Amino acid sequence: MTDIIAVSGLRKSFGTTEVLRGLDLTVARGTVLALLGPNGAGKTTLISILSTLVRPDAGTVTVAGHDVAREPEAVKAAISLTGQSAAVDDVLTGAENLRMMGRLSGLTRSAAARRADELLARFDLVEARGRRVKTYSGGMRRRLDLAISLLSTPPVVFLDEPTTGLDTRARAALWDIIRDLAATGTTVLLTTQYLEEADQLADRIAVLAQGRIVAQGTAAELKALVGGEVVSLVDASGELVRELPTDGTVEGLRAALDAMGTDAATASVQLRRPSLDDVFLHLTSTPTGADSDTDSRGRELAATKG
Ligand SMILES: Nc1ncnc2c1ncn2[C@@H]1O[C@H](COP(=O)(O)OP(=O)(O)O)[C@@H](O)[C@H]1O
Ligand SMILES: [Mg+2]
Q1: Ligand 1: which atom is nearest the Cα of residue 54?
Q2: Residues 150 and 251 in one domain
Q3: Nearest C-alpha to atom 9 of ligand 1 is from which residue?
Q4: For position 1, what pLDDT does the model report?
Q5: From ligand 2's centre to the CA of 51, what distance in Å?
Q6: Domain region containing 255
Q7: What is the pLDDT of residue 118?
Q8: Is the domain of 217 the same as that of 231?
Q9: Which residue has the CA at smallest separation from atom 4 of ligand 1?
Q10: What residue's CA is closest to ligand 1, atom 5?
Q11: 205/282 same-domain check
Q12: Rounded CA gap, 275 and 162, in Å?
């Protein structure tokens, strides 16, 4: 089995809110997949289902070959999940928390101590190691939480917006850790709202919008989805006036220029290749509907690369 995560026809509603509406997704063993989506798209819901914390309404979901609904214990044994700061004991120090959680996750006393030291160093918590967690700032808690989730490295690691709230330095440290995990064969599924992060870290990117994966592929494949060129209008001082993506044809350029209006007539035109931001906007800002252009194009790409 090469797909360590396999999701098919997944549906989940909360009350009358349909969050996931027939989501299909596979993740190959030992790869990093970035799940990209706007706020409220359902990223956390999907991660919660994959980690057995939330039950799906319909569809099949397997992680490491185990069905999340029928074999939740086997799934839990194969995964690690962040966002469990609730497990952090405020009265203990950072180092004590790490060692205790290390022991609970099955490491020997010396292995837990060693791993705790490594992670304290990586997450810039060495100076604070002997302080009680209740004196930690929000950012320090977040780093400790991430460190705890990486104490042992099971086959699959879920990171739900791991770099949210981290400063540049902590973010860089986490990126390094994620790269190390991937290099040792761990499968990582991370969610992010940052395109740059997806581009930097992920082997593949899946875009979640309107309850489905509307596109997936490498960063380059996704950029190709937007097609041709983005037309930019800049004013005399080089400031961007307006931009529109086009299909790269003469007709497409003409239409884009017309759409930009005559008030921009004195601006000059530049063309550039689409960025991941363009892809993201293109895929997530189109109207809902199973027959929308975006949806069918996304499916096509997913199908050809699946
Ligand atoms: N336990 C819950 N009860 C009710 N609504 C929920 C619950 N969890 C999530 N939602 C709703 O589901 C939608 C998707 O949320 P979420 O998965 O957190 O999105 P994301 O992580 O992409 O920001 C939102 O509209 C959110 O309000
Ligand atoms: Mg979320």
Answers
A1: 1
A2: no
A3: 45
A4: 54
A5: 14
A6: 227-303
A7: 93
A8: no
A9: 14
A10: 14
A11: no
A12: 23
Q: What is the pLDDT of residue 302?
A: 36
**Ligand 1 atom 3: residue of nearest CA:** 14
Whether residues 236 and 97 fall in one domain: no
In the listed set 222, 246, 277, which residue is the last one of a domain according to the structure?
222
* pLDDT beneath 50: ranges in the chain: 288-306
Domain check: are 299 and 150 in the same one?
Answer: no
Q: How far apart are CA 197 and CA 200, in angstroms?
A: 5
User: How far, CA to CA in Å, does 215 sit from each of 140, 194, 209, 246, 279?
Assistant: 35, 16, 9, 18, 10
The last residue of one of the domains, among 170, 199, 222, is: 222
The whole-number pLDDT of residue 301 equals 39
Q: Which atom of ligand 1 is nearest to the CA of 46?
A: 17
- Ligand 1, closest atom to CA 45? 17
| Domain match, 11 and 57 both | yes
Domain count for the chain, please give it: 2
**Are 211 and 77 part of one and the same domain?**
yes
Q: Are residues 215 and 278 in the same domain?
A: no
Residues at CB less than 6 angstroms from ligand 1: 14, 17, 19, 37, 39-45
CATH assignment of the domain containing 129: 3.40.50.300
The number of the ligand 1 atom at minimal distance from the alpha carbon of 161 is: 21
